[in-house]
Amino acid sequence: KKVVVLISGNGSNLQAIIDQCHGQDADIVAVISNKADAYGLERAQNADIPAQVILSKGKTREVFDGQLMEAIERHQPDLVVLAGFMRILTPEFVRQYQGKMINIHPSLLPKYQGLNTHQRAIDAGDAEHGASVHFVTEELDGGPVIVQARVPVFDDDAASELAARVQTQELRIYPLAVKWFCSGRLIMNGAHAELDNAAL
Ligand code: GRF
């Protein structure tokens, strides 16, 4: 299955998907970044995956999303993967890819939608935190959850330490979700993600 990955930064999730999925269930046909300095662009180049930048700075959401959609449609992907992509997409864009666009969010959704999730979990005194892979819908960080991973929160945790513990799990569960979708065992059915349990 053809996959397009959208990034904005380091691309550690992109790298995990390249290492664990590319050339097997998934064929990453393009990496697109909205930041010219995203290290993930180098990761794509190192893997001989076409990479391009579409700047969002100074553009309205509608203009940027239109340019992004045009670039994506050239590849006719089966799946769009948001991997550290730090843009809120317009409802029109989301509708276009509903059911075949996924995202990873560093919290146990539906808790802590939005930013600064690790500090919020620490401040709330949560004993557990984690990461969630979900289908993207018009609700920000709100679509049907596909898979989650839990990590403990220690009393003396700094946000950076908790973030590192969460990211270790992200790099494990995101490739799983990509493999399940690309092998036809994961679909979005209305408000739910449906996984053929033979996939487990
Ligand atoms: C990740 O930790 C993820 O939770 C969030 O963006 C962060 C950076 O991702 N979506 P990456 O290293 O660019 O993949």
TrEMBL record:
Limits of the Formyl transferase N-terminal domain: 1-178
One Gene Ontology cellular component annotation held by this UniProt entry: cytosol
GO BP annotations listed: 'de novo' IMP biosynthetic process
CDD domains: FMT_core_GART
Signal peptide per UniProt: none
Descriptive protein name: Phosphoribosylglycinamide formyltransferase
Gene: purN
InterPro entries recorded: Formyl_transf_N (IPR002376), Formyl_transf_N_sf (IPR036477), GART (IPR004607), GART_AS (IPR001555)
Organism: Veronia nyctiphanis
